[in-house]
Design brief:
The structure holds two protein chains of two kinds.
Chain A: H1 2-24, H2 33-40, H3 47-57, H4 65-77, H5 92-127, H6 136-145, H7 148-159, H8 184-218, H9 222-229, H10 234-272, H11 277-286, H12 290-318, H13 320-324
Helix pairs in contact in A: 1-12, 5-8, 5-10, 5-12, 6-8, 7-8, 7-10, 8-10, 9-10, 10-11, 10-12, 11-12
Chain B: H1 8-11, H2 26-37, H3 40-62, H4 93-129, H5 131-146, H6 149-159, H7 165-175, H8 178-191, H9 195-202, H10 207-243, H11 254-263, H12 272-300, E1 311-313, E2 319-321
Antiparallel strand pairs in B: 1-2
Helix pairs in contact in B: 3-4, 3-12, 4-5, 4-7, 4-8, 4-10, 5-8, 6-7, 7-10, 8-10, 9-10, 10-11, 10-12, 11-12
Classes of the chains: A mainly alpha, B mainly alpha.
């Protein structure tokens, strides 16, 4: 329990750091972005919206930084992230809530799949060194060195087309209303296959490599020799003894590298025009939509923190030593 | 973007498999360098990287065309004049690739150097000083580790309008040091308890001297692997930034090529030559850097080497799998298998007998 509370405290601290960073980033913008935006949408903005923007961007010359900071937190707790300019006049929070589910389904599911598959292959490669599995490493390394988006582009080129099963972009058939019914779900799955495969192929090698190296290290430990000497079946030694212990560093590595992976998968969304957070970020960049960018950064960071917390819970179940203390 | 390709952190600290750092005698240093190069992965990776560096230096001079100059041939496939075809404006893709190499290598290495310096300063200090300093620095690096780096880089560079190579490299460097700092801290923690460090401290050496002369030489492998990992990340990030079009488009790099190709729907128009060379260039560079990292891992922990053939066929037709820590048993015959050779019976009448040992296994 103590371990768990420590982690929660750390994540709260990180969330605070990220939000503070988010508060200061727009203050680096040279010039007056709000004024530029206001003139662009002359007359369309309410006075309240302009005020909220000034708090977000800190051009409010009347207040000092501290009072702006307090004001910023108040807005956050009210769920007010400002208005999006790319999707004017939709509030940022609404834009995000529309796209977060897409990203969670695509990136969440594929990341977990990639971890499971990669770890499984890593166990195999580490346990049966010198067999065909040694060939996995160079091949997957090559694929992981390719940028995600390039792989996606090539996949679109090779696999999609007028009569192809794979659609070349989008989240679902145009005209379908998102709902859990027999029309929308199959179409959504069909559209997510190719992006998912792209992410899977380029991210799996890291897991294979780290799990293989852990397996190699663990399999020369004394307790493995003892397990063999006791005459336990090979499968049991490999999975119950070696893999179980090798898995621990991999799980904590999983949590820590989530930040890296999420960033990469966004590019896949952009290439496939998948209506998730990454694609929104792309559109926000094109339109200089700073409120949306800020909101996206916030939501990504918080999602990664939550995922980290979940990984810690898994770790808690896997490693009895962390549970023992309390 | 990618998972760090090195698992050096998992392999080294506290796993009992740590390669014992040798007190480097000057005479041995040369031999050790060659030892690293004798690893085939290291040699291959370094040679490829060397080629890229040479191209980065001479690329703009040997490029047959000005990368931005428009030509007569629009969207032409590879030919003897344009080795990698042309773009929609008749620009030569091969020249763009050559000229772009410099920017990619420059940003990769500058970001790598910045991140490595930061990680060494923060990681080694945290590990060596310990106490409150360690807690603060560890918390700092953990925060940077968990915050998604690429979105942050994208947002920061998009805010700085028309960010050039220097800005991009510095932003990447300042956001990607945390992983290495963490690894270095763990490694420093385990090193500072070693006898030779304790001894140096007992003889009254100053902390600065202990760190630079006792600790850093033994951290070389970790630092190098962290540097290589950061270069991979930086290269991919720079190309990504250029691809989504938020960095300055005045300089050519491989991402800029892909940006224009994507913008002009190159693949929909079947202009594969516009896409494929840049992508392959990235992939080969990334693979070369990963190979170097594998080699560093294997150098530090030799057990990680690919084992070669572990299945051995014996004369009797059975197959046996070699495994660490085990002596394979080749037969199940009731007679005990031993390495002891029978005591030779010496025939005193004849010449001195030569005992021929049969190999037991």
């Amino acid at each position: 329990m103590r371990f768990f509370l420590q982690r929660v405290a750390f994540y709260l601290f990180t969330a605070w750091a990220a939000i503070t960073l988010n508060f200061f980033i727009p203050r680096l913008i040279p010039g007056d972005p709000v004024q530029a935006l206001i003139t662009k949408y002359q007359g369309q903005l309410s006075t309240k919206a302009i005020e909220s923007l000034y708090v977000l961007f800190g051009i409010d010359k009347n207040g000092n930084v501290w009072s702006e900071y307090v004001e910023y937190w108040k807005q956050l707790f009210a769920g007010d992230l400002g208005l999006s300019f790319a999707f004017f006049p939709t509030p940022v929070s609404e834009v995000l809530s529309d796209s977060i589910l897409w990203t969670l389904m695509l990136v969440g599911v594929t990341t977990i799949l990639s971890f499971v598959i990669g770890t499984g292959l890593g166990v195999l490669a580490g346990w049966r060194r010198g067999s065909w599995t040694d060939g996995l490493l160079p091949v997957t390394t090559f694929f992981s060195s390719v940028p995600y988006f390039w792989l996606g582009i090539i996949a679109i080129y090779l696999l999609t087309g007028p009569d192809s099963f794979f659609p070349s972009g989008g989240g679902a058939e145009v005209g379908l209303v998102p709902a859990f019914d027999m029309y929308f779900i199959p179409s959504a799955i069909q559209h997510s296959l190719l992006p998912a495969l792209t992410i899977l192929i380029s991210s799996v090698s890291g897991w294979i490599l780290s799990m293989r190296n852990m397996m190699v290290t663990v399999s020369s430990e004394d307790y493995i020799t003892v397990a063999h000497a006791k005459g336990l079946p090979e499968r049991r030694v490999a999975l119950g003894y070696a893999a179980r212990n090798a898995l621990l560093p991999n799980v904590s590595g999983f949590a820590l590298s989530l930040g890296f992976i999420v960033g990469g998968t966004f590019l896949v969304e952009i290439v496939f025009s998948y209506p998730g957070i990454g694609f929104q970020l792309f559109q926000a960049l094109g339109a200089n939509d700073y409120p949306l960018m800020q909101g996206i950064f916030l939501i990504i960071t918080i999602s990664v923190l939550v995922a980290n917390l979940l990984a810690d819970v898994v770790y808690l179940f896997l490693d009895p030593r962390t549970r023992k203390e309390g | 973007m990618t998972i760090p390709t090195s698992s050096i952190e998992q392999v080294i600290p506290g796993q009992g498999s740590m390669a014992q750092p040798e007190a480097g005698k000057p005479a041995k240093a040369k031999r050790q360098r060659f030892l690293f190069l004798s690893n085939r992965k290291a040699a291959a990776g370094l040679i490829i990287l060397g080629i890229y560096i040479v191209l980065a230096i001479i690329g703009p001079w040997i490029a047959p065309f000005d990368p931005g100059a428009r030509g007569e041939d629009l969207m032409q496939g590879p030919s003897s004049e344009h080795w990698m075809g042309t773009t929609h404006l008749g620009q030569d893709v091969y020249s763009q690739l050559l000229v772009g190499t410099r920017s990619v290598i420059f940003v990769g290495f500058l970001a790598g150097i910045v991140a490595t310096l930061l990680s060494v300063i923060i990681g080694v200090t945290a590990g060596y000083v310990g106490g409150k300093t360690d807690e603060v620095l560890s918390a700092l690096s953990n925060v940077f580790l968990v915050i998604p780096a690429l979105p942050l880089i994208i947002i920061v560079t998009s805010i700085m309008e028309n960010a050039g190579e220097w800005v991009v490299a510095l932003v990447i460097g300042f956001t990607s040091w945390s992983w290495n700092a963490r690894v270095l801290r763990a490694q420093t923690l385990s090193l500072r308890r070693r006898d030779y460090v304790e001894a140096a401290r007992a003889t009254g050496e100053r902390s600065g001297r202990i760190i630079t002369f006792e600790l850093l030489p033994n951290l070389t492998a970790v630092i190098a692997s962290g540097f290589v990992g950061t270069v991979i990340f930086a290269v991919l990030s720079e190309i990504t930034l250029a691809f989504i079009g938020i960095t300055s488009s005045n300089t050519w790099n491989w991402g800029t090529i892909l940006f224009w190709a994507q913008g002009q729907q190159a693949l929909a128009r079947s202009a594969w030559w516009w896409f494929v060379p840049a992508g392959l260039a990235i992939a080969i560079l990334g693979t070369a850097l990963s190979l170097i990292n594998f080699a560093i891992d294997e150098f530090v922990s030799p057990r990680l080497r690919s084992a070669g053939k572990t299945k051995i066929k014996t004369n009797s037709g059975r197959t046996v799998r070699m495994r660490i820590g085990f002596t394979p048993v080749l037969s199940n015959s009731p007679e005990p298998i031993t390495h002891a050779s029978p005591i030779p019976v010496v025939d005193h009448n004849g010449a001195t007998p030569v005992v021929r040992k049969e190999h037991a296994s």
